[in-house]
Amino acid sequence: MNASAPGFDWKGVLADLRAHLPRGSGKAGHEVRGSLRWLEAEMRGRGANGSSVRNIVYRDVGTPADKAALRAILEGLAREAGRPLEGGGAASPPVPSPLPDELELLGRSKKRAYKQFLAGVRSGRAPRLIVTGRAGAGKTILLDHLERALRGVASGPVTRLNLRGDVQAGGPAGGEGTLPLAASGTSFSARAQAQADAARSVLPPPPGVLLARVTADLTFAGGPPRGPDGSPLSPAAWAAEHLLRRAPPGVAVLLALEDAAGLPGGVAEVIELRPPTPAEARAYLMARLGIPRERADLLVRETGRHLDRLVLLAGSGAEEAAPDRLLADPDVRRLAAALAALEVGPDGDIPGPALAAALGGPVAALPPHARALLREGSAGWTPLPPLRAALGHVPAREVQEPLRRLAGASLPPDLARFRLSALAALGEWGGLAAHLAGCPDDARHLPPLWPRVRAGARGATRETLARAVAAHHAGRGEYDEPHARDALFTLLESPNPAVRGWARVKLAESSVDAGNFEAATAGLAHPDLSGVLAGAPDSWTAAAGADALLVRAALARWRGDLEAATHAVRDPRTAHGGARAHLWRGLIAKDAGRWGEALHHLHLVPEASPLLSARARYQEGDLRLRLGQPAAALEALTDAAARLEVAGGTDEEGARALARAATALRRLGRPGEGWEHLGRALALLPNAVGGGRGDTVLRARLLSEGVPVLLALGRPDAALADATRALALLARPGPRRPEAEYRTRRTAYRVALAYLTRGVGLPYLQPFAGPRGDHPDLAHARALLDVGLTRADGKSDREQVLTFDMRLSRALADPDPRAALEHTGRALDMTDHPYAEAQARAIRAEALLRAGEGNAALAEVNRAHALVRRVQLGLPGTHAPDPGLTAQLLALEARATVGEGVGTLGWLRDALREPDLAPFRPGVWREAGRALEHGHPHPEAVLRVLHPDWEPGHLRLRDALVLLETGPEG
Description:
By secondary structure, the chain is mostly helical. Among the domains are: 10-81, no CATH class; 104-272, Rossmann fold; 276-316; 328-409, no CATH class; 583-684, Serine Threonine Protein Phosphatase 5, Tetratricopeptide repeat (Alpha Horseshoe), CATH 1.25.40.10; 766-966, Tetratricopeptide repeat domain (Serine Threonine Protein Phosphatase 5, Tetratricopeptide repeat). It is built from 47 helices and nine strands. Strands 2-4-6-1-7 form a five-stranded parallel β-sheet, sandwiched between helices. The chain has a two-stranded parallel ribbon with strand order 3-5. Strand 8 (374-377) and strand 9 (380-383) form a beta hairpin. Helix 24 packs parallel to helix 27 (539-559) and helix 33 packs antiparallel against helix 34. The longest helix is centred in the last third of the chain and has 24 residues, at 737-760. The protein is elongated, with a radius of gyration of 41 Å. Residues 1-6, 25-29, 87-97, 172-176 and 688-694 have low confidence and may be disordered.
């Protein structure tokens, strides 16, 4: 029995073969030969539809090609099993049907028309045939497959003509395959002649083939089709006259008519095409999609047995689907117009709300055949290649309506770019400026539209939009970005001096950002600007005045003149700067040590300004890190990084936030996570030196900030290598020389820290004790620190912090406790907040312990504990103390009171139960064990009381104590 014919017992044959296949024919890790999954894989390997296997085996439903492929696989299994496939001998493989799947499965009339016309052309005749049928009956499918088949057999050209809607004069208006209608006069006879000439021009020479589709709504330049005498004709009659009867002898013609009204009799054989029956449509979908009957029935009902829609739904020929073919469907055409309005890029996904706005309704309301041309993902909808290719063929006039819907839509803030793009495409420059006035942060979506704005907008509106572009890039520090520079120079060409003055302020800002403070000072003194600031205020002068004051504050901050910086940001005129002014006030107050005021202004930056609020959160995190609140700092910095990503912040800003979060994680005792954050930060930056503005200095900064993290991980050699790389980058800083000089000093300090860590032999993690003896690495660390302290520049706040850090590290690097005490004393003189004082007193207590002054050390520890409590209570909100500093103080107190033996260690055990102290417990017990060895007359007895089962063995007592209290994992 032929395996492509109904009635072949697929299921029985397969069961018989499975029973007789040799045992062990399935391999470990592979599907068993003969199983359904194995058959599906084999089908896919042969280019057939693997999902058709189950429908063929259980329902005998599938395309001839798929059935032939499955039959060939079964014959191979039959030979392997030594069994005839049927009745004593394997039947010869069936000859695959030459018909395409759609025609084989979907109706006799289509098969008859296809075979009849194709056979006539193959035989050298010039057949004439007319097929009729309503939309969805299969006319386009028939023409598609005939055109494809004829390309290989016809001896002459194959012309495809698609006549629908109104054919305009002046050239093809409906895409490829329509008539080149020439302009005509007003008389009916002139119009008829123009139509006849257009038809004659597309008729192929013999022995060519004409395939023409004509819809019932065909008109010419707004008028009806006309006969030779000028009288109106139906589209069918016009096509029969001009495309069939007047075709040259030897030209084969197939007319596909939507409506046969008016068709004269006897011009050619007429075959009526009918839509597929429910059974045909169901079988087709089951074969093509491999879906069960119930799902196929539902889809058939939803598509209305419309053949074009069924083919689209099944994805048949999707990759080669012609744009005209797709756009012939009204639902697909509407979807394509919406996507064209959204300006889909080559790889872009479209968020659901944006697509719904352009469509004027939810995407789910599209019929299944249109939705089949989209792929839904987590980021939205992706047009499949055939639909994407059709977007450029949508007439511009049809895109206007979805553009208007987008322009008037209320979209979420993160999708505002679609509204702005629609307003620009419509040329509604006033509406675009009004939108940005109400939502200034949406200016981040404006730069890609700037070329269109520059070419289309005029006068004050263009200047307003240029200001938005320039301000956006200035806020991101992208002063050299081409759109930013073009927008600024557009403003500098303005006849309005106030506009030119605002642009001059932005140029001064760019000089500050590049570290060229002299140029910034000169820029503020430019005559254009000084004249504007002295004039009557308007929106331009008010903005220029506010920004100029902020530039002056930045210059004063650079000089270390915080009083002048404070005076500038407190000037009432800065109120025009809004959120940006609050950010700068918070920054200046932070530098000046006015912590509460700093947080107050940082918290006034509204979330409605996403980028500025992200920067405010970064500054808050940096401040809380400095004030000894690493947990709160980590929360703020992580939030800042997330906000920057959503708000479209630069990669450089995101990298800085991640790097500071890495420092917070180190301070929380989680250096491994900190190292991961640093890796993410570095990955955001280009590797090439000079790859972008500030790349060299920022990459060096991140490498330098990673040094303490590597030291906390116990990797001093890797830390030295990264510090060396950072110093090499800082040696060629480009225009940011002042910043590079500070980063060089900070990195040199971290080199000393690496030698200190290696010399002491401990990871840079609290508690960190000073040395009892000298070491070459310690001597080198001291030499580096002494050089750094000699060259310290104490003008700015950050230089003061660097000097303070160097003093404390210098104390830890000195085996002479008296010299260490001198450095801690000088550090104490510099403290300006409780956390800094607590740090200095902790290091001082450590030096006192090394000097043998336990009581004095204990007094310093107690003062530090009190200062830590002030850190918790000194600022708004609840903030956990720095667990590292707490661990250090616990270790110092244990060292000072270790003579009490069991009482001290029992108290220490209770104190270390706090979850935040978990990363520091091994270090605290290490210091307690070392003190017990050297400071108690009977250390073994103390340990045996705490751990009765312990017996002295191979380990030193301090190591045994760490293991007993923390477990093998530490």
